Amino acid sequence: METKQTGSKGAEALLHLSPGSSISVAYHPVFGTHDNIILLELDEKLLPDVLNERVTVRGQPDEDAVLCTPSKTYAMKFVGTSNSVLLVPPENQSKLYQNLQESDGNHDNEKVVAPVIEVVPGYMELVEVAPRLDKLKSLLLENPYKLEEYDAGDFEENEESRSGLYNWNDLIDNIQASDEELRSGLQSLSAVEINGYWRLVHESYMNMILEMLLRNSVLNDWPLDALNEDEVVNMLETDGFPGVLARHCLHVYGVKVDDSMHSCILKLDKRRVCIHFAIEILRGGKRKLESFIDEWKQKTPDGMEPTFDLLEGEVLTEKLGIETWVSAFSVSSLPSTPAERFSILFRERPKWEWKDLQPYIRDLKVPGLSAESLLLKYTRRTQPSSDTEPVFSAR
């Protein structure tokens, strides 16, 4: 036999309802549509962030909203349900209904204990997604830092001078990514904070600073695998470069080898430096492979022997007659969404051998999808025989 509870208790009565028991429900006096209430389904691992108010909803009015924890991004998708989902407020918000019942003289044993304020049609579901960082690069490219800007002096704080500039708060308002993912995106773009605004430094200015750094290393007999940060920055400031950009350049092309209390020691990264000079050479267009290699070797510093494998994911080669030509095609210039990425790749080349394709897709990260799944979804694989390389074309 079912046991019946009495007394207006609100949602707490439902939480402690034992198996086989029943409870009566009725309309709350404020029953209706409550636009300020949305049900959200959460995985247990997200509860600490939500309960401790470490989540934010991000997105512009014309974008689908995402929910961000400190380290991850989740798409918010409405899921409808055919069942009747009754929304019952907590006990402290059901007092009004209880008082009304008592004033009506209703003292029957079977009292309404779960007053319903709304019947909801569904709930919001969270699905982990990759951060939407493509917009970050386009925003920072609106106003990259150039030599002319430094020559003109620090910009004044007015609305016109801030056009195309974004501080941290501007970025979190515009970019659908968690704080951790946004910082990682800024680092991968080699962005630097200047006067409170996050900037990209124009490639010609970065080239100028790097070449001056290399020239000073020769003049001062600095070993490229043991550069003293303070000494390098002070010398570059003497040459007329702002300290923040000198330090930024050193960290873009170098890696720390020692970070003691007194000084930071870095070494120039061979791959980063060699890629920089290769792209500088190819900025004017494709080149014959032999002449490109010759000029590349001349530009790179002594001790950094450039090899073509360093340019994986940065350049493409093609045969035109008996000549091999090389052109710039950097993975960093490609969109991060798989559909757009593969569309551009197959516009560039209708067919790709795996050794050429792999460098351009290995950075794609889609939660819940492996690299193999992405290939199955967006490409068609052909392999004439077991001893030949597979070829991928658009699906």
TrEMBL record:
BP GO annotations: DNA replication; maintenance of mitotic sister chromatid cohesion
Record keywords: DNA replication
Keyword DNA repair tagged: no
Alphabetical list of InterPro entries matching this protein: Dcc1
Domain of life, source organism: Eukaryota
Gene Ontology cellular-component terms listed: chromatin; chromosome, centromeric region; Ctf18 RFC-like complex
Coiled-coil residues: none
Pfam families: Dcc1
Family according to the record: Belongs to the DCC1 family.
Protein name, UniProt field: Putative sister chromatid cohesion protein Dcc1
Native organism: Lupinus albus
